Amino acid sequence: MPNMGSQSMPSPERPGAIERTRRWFGDRLSTPVQAALRNTGWLLLMNIGVGGISSIVAVFMIRILGPAAYGQLAFAVSLIVMGLAAAELGLDRIVIRQIVEEEQEQGAVLGSAALARGVASTIGIAVVVPAAVVMRPGEHTIWLLTLVAAPAVYSTCFDVLGSWHTARLTSRTVAITRLGSQLVASGLRVVALLAGLPLVYFAALFALELLGAGIALLIRYQWSADHARWRARWTTIRKLLGESWPYAGSNLAVMTYLRIDQLMIGLYLGNKATGLYAAAAFITEVVNILPMATTQSVIPGLLRLKTANYERYLQRLQIFFDLITWIAIPVAMAVAVAGYFGLVLLFGDVYGDARWPLLVLCAGIAFTWHGIMLSPWVLAEQAQRAFLVGHVIASVTNVALNALLIPIVSLGITGAAIASVVAYGVAAYLVLAVVPKYRPVLKLVMKAYAAPVRYLWKHLRR
To answer: Cα–Cα distances in Å, from 331 out to 104, 124, 183, 454?
Structure first.
């Protein structure tokens, strides 16, 4: 017999680099943290994927439809988007918190929120459809587009399920559903473009995309083992709305100063001008996906750090502000240069007059990104009511400047772009400058503009 004692045991195979990395993180991150990171990853994928797909298809829509037809569609969609903002009632954050804190009451919370949004959606549609008739007398196509797209407002009722998944750290379902809905709707848009179908089909697809995703989420919820029977309670509705109204007002004010320019251009200058401006705005808005995705991923960590170590929280805020600012500035410059020379290449010669408003809107990209990056701080400091006032003032400023610069000073769509940039600055900085206790944060924001000089000076002093 061979001498078994003299044989050495085979050494276990050394794990690869990927496996070692996975084990390293697994040993250091708790299961809840891992779940939160996975959830954040799916949210990022959803935002970037949906935004990317819709942007690619939008380029073809803008080019093929032309300024006048695209302007009609943009006007109708702007009205509906304002109705959506109003119907949301600012409930998302409140619903998430209530489900986390009182999971046994999720049926009452979801049912009450859905009913409140259903009523708000009905009121919103009853406002925006007549608004199209009043604002654009004789424009039967715009009336029809608004009416056909209006059911999209009811998608807010299903959006409570997005909050449910966020609270449970299961946003994978939401991401897959919305990506699927976006792919289907985008495919149908391409077919409609190639077939030369009327504009009303695109308005219908706008509603179909949002409602389809919502209905799919509802079906998936019914299959879930953890689903609860929805029931609406008046006391729960009052509690939710009592806490959410600052968010609701702020959301509506934000959407007003983001969309009112296109509505007022349509009112004063007509469909072609609306289409030209909407094309310029589209290019500058595409890049907003970046701060939205980044901000969403840092909110949980900043909120925890504020409670644990306030000094480190301020340091992390400064680093975050520095990062966002110095991504925004080169991005704005790149979009301005590429947009000015590439706008006609993308959309066609008929969009040449959109170059100047595009350049002006690029000047406001940093303001817009700062407004987005402040949301973790607003949540952490519970400054929602103060920023509601700031957003309302920004909306009023935008309306007033549009009324002055478009018809009176005769700056046309470039005047609308100037009004928007001023409104973005007011929304981002006014409250920080006026309210004394918020001025330290304004200092952090202003220091972010000087970040390269600060870091260079710090390096030289070593």
So the answer is: 46, 36, 27, 21
